[in-house]
Design goal:
The structure holds two protein chains of two kinds.
Chain A (H helix, E strand, L loop, with lengths): L2 H21 L3 H24 L5
Chain B lengths: L3 H22 L5 H6 L6 H12 L2 H14 L6 H27 L4 H8 L5 H33 L3 H49 L3 H11 L16 H16 L2 H4 L14 H28 L15 H9 L3 H39 L5 H24 L5 H25 L5 H25 L6 H19 L5 H6 L12
The chains are: A mainly alpha, B mainly alpha.
Chain lengths: ~55, ~500
């Protein structure tokens, strides 16, 4: 296997193992739910930093 | 089941709420004080009022119940419902608050009447629709209160309903939004601390978070997936429509959106969306995890749920009962559920009182009515709405469960399009708004009944209804005369959020 293909493969295995070992959940659940929470938080933090009330 | 400590704990909570009402009543000088708390709400009172308003008793019992029944595919509810607070503040709150500073709106119907130049037709339609939807939602809240009181005290339904109605009605009637907001502050703190302590106890009692997930996967692999691969509910398509319904439907519900008119300063909207999402999100996630724990507890024989149609809604009550074998501690949990229920119930009652007294009585039936009379009518309607919904909850009609189920979807289909189009689309017209609102109400009834009684639809029923409402708004608006530029400028209509109050 080429070196370039091994790294994403290892990363993928590692995420799956962590989510299964730590939470007993498939990685797709961790990634989608966790991703949605993180994106929501980032957007709301962004709003907080940039909103200054009225013009 | 109840002992003296239980009676004392629940009694102390009820007395504290009435005490807040008595304290708040001294601040009430006019209708503006009563319905929008003199526009004086600070950051934490507002954030916790939003959480308390959105977090109903049925959601407290229902969140864990849904988790117990369908597992992780329902977790999106825990993201979309807290996001509804942020959506309401950002997309409705900022503009409405800015316009209100000049126009002095008391209810969101004031805005609709102004923006669409429809002081009678649209105001009446939206107020009547708002009152009906709020009353239906209110019956569901009283049902939740009675479930808790019956469980805790073993008292009959009528007595638990009378106690709950009396307490909520007293402090809401005398203290208006001041009482509701400050009670929500206390209730939300009780709710947050209570769930932070109680939910982990149930999860650990079930063997811990990882064990619960592994157990769920062994029962049915779909239970730990982010969506259902079979069936019609919680499939990816369904989840999109479910998310829109929860996030926008709750955000535009009259009892939620009216809160933004009571805030002291628009700058409080800077961090309020994040705080609302974060605090309520943590509470909701923990409640859902407690529902997941219920799967392991029931399947492993820790307890058996009652043989009733909505057995899953009892999972958190039975979980606490088994994880904490001390009767006195159950009363603490009962107070948490009561706090959640009352924080929505009081706001709904006040919203009904406000919409009738201000939008129908003052603005349509008797425009020359003095402020004192409007205030009196508000209080009378608050009491009447409580008595009426209590009587319906006491003798629930066959259609009740269906109507309560329709609640948030109906709010989405009725209010989302006229509000969003009003705020952001300058071409939206009076006739467009009227037809859109009427089409939303009618089509949600048709699609809801079809979903419930004929055949399941691939998307949540409200999605179709809101689509009909949107098409009606666009088609009718483009065919009718445009709103005057003066009103569009006064109401800050356009594709922007932040605006000047000048």
């Amino acid at each position: 296997m080429k070196k370039r293909a091994v790294i994403p493969c290892l990363l993928n295995v590692s995420v799956a193992q962590v989510s299964m070992d730590m939470f007993g959940l498939p990685d797709v659940t961790i990634l989608t739910v966790g991703g949605a929470v993180v994106i929501s938080l980032v957007l709301l933090i962004f709003w907080g930093f940039f909103f200054r009330g009225e013009d | 089941m109840a002992d003296i400590i239980t009676v004392l704990v629940v009694g102390a909570y009820c007395l504290a709420m009435i005490g807040i009402g008595a304290w708040a009543s001294k601040k009430i000088k006019n209708t503006e004080d009563y319905l929008v708390a003199g526009r004086s709400l600070g950051f934490w009172v507002f954030v916790l009022l939003m959480i308390g308003t959105v977090c109903s008793g049925m959601s407290l019992l229902g969140v864990s119940g849904l988790g117990y029944k369908f597992g992780w595919p329902t977790i999106w509810e825990q993201i979309f419902v807290p996001l509804s607070i942020a959506f309401c503040i950002i997309f409705f709150g900022v503009k409405l608050h800015t316009i209100t500073r000049k126009s002095g709106y008391i209810t969101v119907q004031d805005y609709l009447a102004h923006r669409y130049e429809s002081p009678v037709a649209l105001r009446t339609l939206s107020a009547v629709a708002g009152i009906l939807v709020s009353l239906i939602y209110l019956v569901g809240q009283y049902t939740a209160i009675s479930i808790v009181l019956m469980w805790l005290f073993g008292i009959p339904l009528w007595l638990s309903l009378v106690i709950a109605t009396l307490v909520v009605t007293i402090y809401t009637t005398i203290g208006g939004l001041y009482a509701v907001a400050w009670a929500a502050l206390v209730q939300s703190i009780i709710l947050i601390l209570g769930v932070l302590i109680m939910a982990p106890i149930i999860i650990f009692y079930a063997g811990g978070f990882t064990h619960v997930n592994e157990f769920m996967a062994s029962v049915n692999p779909d239970l730990v997936m982010p969506y259902m691969s079979t069936g019609v509910m919680f499939t990816p398509d369904y989840l999109v429509s479910f998310g829109i319904m929860l996030m926008i439907g709750l955000a535009c519900a009259p009892h939620v959106i009216n809160n933004v008119l009571a805030v002291k300063d628009v700058r409080l909207f800077k961090w309020a969306p994040l705080m609302g999402f974060l605090i309520y999100g943590i509470v909701m996630f923990l409640l859902k995890f407690a529902g997941f724990a219920g799967i392991a507890l029931v399947k492993e024989g820790a307890f058996v749920l009652p043989n009733v149609p909505n057995a899953q809604d009892f999972v958190i009550l039975y979980g606490i009962q088994n994880a904490l074998p001390y009767v006195a501690l159950w009363s603490v949990f009962a107070v948490i559920v009561l706090a959640a229920v009352m924080s929505t119930t009081d706001r709904l009652m006040l919203t009904v009182g406000g919409m009738f007294s201000w939008d129908i009585y003052k603005k349509i039936l008797k425009p020359d009515a003095p402020d004192r009379q409007v205030l009196f009518v508000s209080k009378i309607v608050v009491v009447l709405s409580a008595v009426l919904t209590m009587l319906v909850a006491l003798n629930p009609p066959d259609m009740l469960a269906f109507l309560i189920w329709m609640g948030i979807g109906l709010m989405l289909a009725t209010f989302a399009v006229p509000l969003l189009a009003g705020l952001y689309w300058r071409r939206a017209t009076r006739m467009g708004a009227i037809v859109s609102m009427a089409a939303g109400v009618l089509s949600s009834g048709i699609f809801g009944a079809y979903y419930q009684y004929v055949a399941k639809l691939p998307l949540h029923y409200s999605f179709y209804a809101v689509l009909v409402s949107l098409i009606a708004m666009v088609a009718v608006s483009l065919c009718t005369e445009k709103t005057s530029e003066k009103v569009l400028d006064e109401t800050k209509t356009g594709w922007f959020i932040r605006c000047s109050s000048e």
